[in-house]
Amino acid sequence: MTDWHIKRLSGHCGARLTGVRIAEAREAELDALRAALFEYGVVVLPDQNLTPDEHIRLAKHFGPIDINRFFTPVPDHPMIAEVRTRADQSRVIGGTWHTDHSYDPAPAMCSILSAQQIPPYGGDTHFASMSAACAALSGGLRKTLEGLSAWHSDSTFANSKVGIKASKEAHRDPALHPVLIRHPVTGAQAVYVNGDFTTHFDGWTPEESAPLLDYLYRFVTQPIFTCRLVWEEGMVAIWDNRLVQHYATADYQGHTRLMHRITVQGVPLTG
């Protein structure tokens, strides 16, 4: 038994968990939090106000920390990345549907975002369930996708207009993943392509791949598969990058937004 109280955010993904202060959580409560993450894809924890050290402790319960090579680190805490939007920016980091670190051979398991400064309105984050989308595929399309893998690349950071100044040394070779993956813990099947980092199907040209990929990007982000997170000061959100994609809304120009993010190492993905 744990003291978590769980309230679903939507029919296919997302849950709000209250009743436990993360900084004081027992091992059993952190294990229950992990189980909820795998069940709902994204978990939202209000009123946590984590310190950097508490943030790191939470992340280490899920696994080794994957230090992001593109983001500015938090001063004195290099394992935490700053996700900062200046008041004069019209575009934001993560302002398109994507999956964190899909460009790595072993993509990030989960991301943990801690709200430091939120705008007076807007800046919501949307999540879409890739397992629900997978279950809704037609039989014919599923059969086609089960035989495909796709390449993912970090090359989009080279032309970033949202304040990411990536050095040439930060970039790596593209990574190949199955289009339909199995979750490493639960075995749930999920679609694993995203518009930010997927470039083409293995054995296909980018031109041949584009029509089917574009269709998949639209299909998996239909509103029926999504939930919407309205941020609050001190809130923490954790999402499983194998189960959901996310999208940051850029509707608060003129205001600053600052989040602290840690990503946790994952494992190579299989179909």
List the helices and strands and how they pair.
Blueprint: E1 5-8, E2 15-18, H1 27-40, E3 42-45, H2 52-62, E4 65-66, E5 73-74, E6 77-85, E7 110-117, E8 125-129, H3 130-135, H4 139-146, E9 149-152, E10 175-178, E11 180-182, E12 189-191, E13 198-201, H5 206-220, E14 226-229, E15 236-240, E16 244-248, E17 257-264
Parallel strand pairs: 2-3
Antiparallel strand pairs: 1-2, 3-15, 4-17, 5-6, 6-17, 7-15, 7-17, 8-14, 8-16, 9-10, 9-13, 11-12
What is the succession of H and E elements?
EEHEHEEEEEHHEEEEEHEEEE
CATH architecture: 4-Layer Sandwich
- What is the percentage of strand-forming residues? 25-35%
CATH class: Alpha Beta
What is the general shape?
globular
Number of DSSP helices? Answer: 5
CATH fold naming: Double-stranded beta-helix
Oligomeric status = single chain
Overall pLDDT, averaged? Answer: 93
The SS-based structural class is alpha+beta
Number of domains: 1
Task: Walk me through the structure.
The two termini are 34 Å apart. With 271 residues, this protein is α+β, with helices and mostly antiparallel strands. A hairpin with a 6-residue loop joins strand 1 (5-8) and strand 2 (15-18). The longest helix has 15 residues, at 206-220. It has a single domain (5-264), classed as Double-stranded beta-helix (4-Layer Sandwich), CATH 3.60.130. It is built from five helices and 17 strands. The chain is 20% helix and 29% strand. Strands 1, 2, 3, 4, 5, 6, 7, 15 and 17 form a nine-stranded mixed beta sheet that branches. Strands 14-8-16 form a three-stranded antiparallel beta sheet.
